Structures are given as structure tokens and as C-alpha cells.
Amino acid sequence: MLKGGIGDLMKQAQKMQTAMQEAQEAAAAREVTGEAGAGLVQITMSGRHDVRRVAIDDSVLSEEKSVLEDLLAAAVNDAIRKVEAANRDAMAEVAGGMELPPGMKLPF
Length: 108
Description:
Elements: H1 2-29, E1 31-36, E2 41-46, E3 51-56, H2 65-95
Pfam family, one: YbaB_DNA_bd
Subcellular location: Cytoplasm, Nucleoid
InterPro entries: YbaB-like_sf, YbaB/EbfC
């Protein structure tokens, strides 16, 4: 009886590992767009935090350099927060309601 229980547990672990790998691959392919200045600066980022595109409205180019730098930083930070939220949601689906301590990330 115990042996069957361990075997079932191992099968479940393998299924979860496969599901996590698929979720990670989907996250890498996913793109999110962070923005700042009401969309004047937009950063498109992959699920692996690679910046794919930067779009800057022409009106921003006439501003001081520090304004553009602040808008770029804010847009990057917005994109990072969106990537993290999307990745966290995808991993929560894989975990299937498994209660993890706060701050613990999957995969381990």
C-alpha cells in the first residue's frame, strides 16, 4: 500500500514538473507592455524580462533629458511588475491551489 502511494506521489510530481516547464515556456513567449506618461513611453518586455521594443512619443523628445530618463525608468518598472504578476498567476495555476509560504517561488 505504501509503495503504491509513493508511486502515485512521484507521478503527480512528474506531472507538475511538466506543467511548470510548459508554463515557463509560455511565460517566455508572453509579452507585456509597461508604460509611463499616459502612454508616451512604452516598453514591451518578454516573460523573461527581455526588452523587445521601446516606443517614445515624439512630443517627449522636446523635454529635458531627465524627464525622458524618468519616463523610461517608470515604463521599465511598470513592465517588470506586469511580467512578475503574469508569471506569478501562471505558476499559481500550475500549483493548483497548493499553499506556499509568502515569498516562496516556483520552481524551487
